[in-house]
Design a protein that fits this description.
By secondary structure, the chain is mainly beta. The protein contains one helix and eight strands, in the order βββββαβββ.
């Protein structure tokens, strides 16, 4: 049995968005917010997570290790998995934009990504 991961998602992996099916096999734990130490950036068709001063809204999932490996491949080179602190103090993993790709995005003055432009 592979290890389980807590994964915070904030963009196209959320319920109702186009890539939610990639989470097939994960268990939805609820809607959550991060501590106010993050920000969203907008690439147009999808968002990214960076350090900042906002509490970001998203969803929390329990994800098997094998699925995490598949999600790493799905997210590709633009993202790196790192830890976020949730509002309640729990630690979860999330996909952050790699610094070398941040120049391609514009800052998003919101705590929730509403969808592509």
């Amino acid at each position: 049995m592979s290890a389980m991961h807590l994964l915070f998602v904030y963009g196209t992996l959320r319920r109702g968005f186009r890539h939610h099916g990639e989470l097939r096999g994960a268990r939805f734990l609820g809607s959550v917010r991060t501590q106010p130490t993050y920000a969203l950036v907008d690439f147009g068709p999808y968002p990214g997570l960076v350090g900042g001063t906002r509490a970001i809204a998203g969803e929390l999932y329990e994800v098997p290790g094998a699925l995490m490996a598949a999600l790493d491949a799905f997210e590709g080179d633009e993202y790196v998995r790192g830890n976020v602190v949730l509002e309640d103090g729990r630690i979860a993993e999330a996909y952050f934009v790699r610094p070398e790709y941040r120049h391609r995005a514009r800052p998003l003055a919101a705590d929730t990504w509403a969808g592509p432009d």
